[in-house]
Design goal:
The chain has 331 residues and is an alpha/beta fold. It has a single domain (8-325), classed as L-arginine/glycine Amidinotransferase, Chain A. 26% of the residues lie in helices and 27% in strands. A hairpin with a 3-residue loop joins strand 15 (270-271) and strand 16 (275-280). The longest helix is centred in the N-terminal third of the chain and has 16 residues, at 25-40. The mean pLDDT is 97.
């Protein structure tokens, strides 16, 4: 599995609709999806999954009106339960024998049975068929936001989600690592304990720490950790060669996000070909976080995306995006 900075063919989004549990998803979310599309299309294709043909017509008209180059947009009519394509969508890998790009189709049970997921569980299979790519069915429950790879052989994750009884009952680290070695090509692991029940995801890694540029971990300041032990594990983590990572700290929001009644975080950013999308909350620390990420990614433009309403429901930018690597593998 390549890291997120690896060249993309495109980015996948599941467009919000009002056919599911929230009849106001469009009103609450859509401006954020438009902003992500506007930022991404200039550097890569944007694959948009829409609920039905009527939604395709509506979203197409909306984006065209917003000045988006529609030749950079591909629509896919797949019914979905929600918008969290990072968790239920395809995870792309290269076959080590022939460099064939493949879709890994892990089991998805909506974060341990916390919501409906009938449609979402079929998205990887449909994506693979739409692209004409092989689909590898993996008999393990996994959400994409629960793992981070540095692209050099190391995977970072939290036990609280992956080894939870509501996903993979009775599993050990060794059990999970066996699947990660086989399907993602990693050999080195950084595990954090995490916190069960703290949020719907049972504490995904992409809300706490992110790999950047293969040699860096981006995370909070130590005082913002609920568990100092997790911070200590991160700063002492070693890569596949036994070398420590550089550590970059991002602030949390200065004020609590009103609609979420909690402080906002910026670690849930997304790296595109030409841009880095970072959550924003109309907070004084929005710019501080964006400026810090601009130093991490000097060759990409950091773009702030309003995410307060999405954060209210438990996710942010990284949770609603999924990268598709360029089909030409760069060794």
């Amino acid at each position: 599995m390549p890291n997120e900075e690896y060249p993309h063919e495109g980015t996948w989004l599941q467009w919000p609709h009002n056919y599911g549990w929230d009849s106001r998803h469009i009103q609450r979310y859509e401006r954020s999806w438009v902003a992500m599309t506007q930022a991404l299309y200039q550097g890569e294709r944007v694959h948009i999954i829409v609920f039905n043909e009527q939604e395709q017509e509506r979203v197409h008209a909306l984006l065209a009106l917003e000045g988006v180059d529609m030749t950079q947009i591909s629509f896919h009519v797949f019914s979905t339960d929600d918008v969290w394509v990072r968790d239920n969508g395809p995870i792309f890998v290269f076959n080590k024998d022939d460099d064939q790009l493949c879709v890994t189709n892990w089991l998805f049970n909506a974060w341990g049975g916390k919501s409906e997921c009938y449609y979402d569980n079929y998205v990887p299979l449909k994506v693979g068929h739409a692209l004409g790519l092989p689909v590898l069915d993996v008999p393990m429950v996994l959400e994409g936001g629960s793992i981070e790879v540095d692209g050099r052989g190391t995977l970072m994750a939290k036990e609280s989600s992956i080894l939870n009884q509501n996903r993979n009952p009775g599993w050990t680290r060794s059990d999970a690592e066996g699947f990660f070695r086989h399907y993602l090509g990693v050999t080195n692991f950084v595990w954090l304990p995490g916190r069960k029940g703290g949020d719907v995801t049972d504490d995904h890694i992409d809300g706490t720490a992110r790999f950047a540029n293969g040699d860096t971990i981006v995370t909070f300041y130590k005082e913002d950790f609920e568990s100092p032990k997790e911070y200590n594990l991160l700063v002492s983590a070693l890569d596949v060669n036994g070398e420590p990572y550089k550590i970059v700290h991002l602030p949390c929001t200065k004020n609590k996000v009103k609609v979420a009644a909690d402080y906002g975080i910026y670690t849930n950013f997304y790296v595109g070909n030409k841009v880095v999308l970072v959550p924003s909350f109309d907070d004084p620390n929005d710019k501080k976080a964006a400026d810090k990420l601009q130093q991490v990614y000097p060759d990409r433009e950091v773009v702030s995306i309003p995410m307060a309403e999405v954060y209210k429901d438990g996710g942010m930018v990284h949770c609603v995006t999924q990268q598709q690597p360029s089909i030409k593998r760069r060794r």
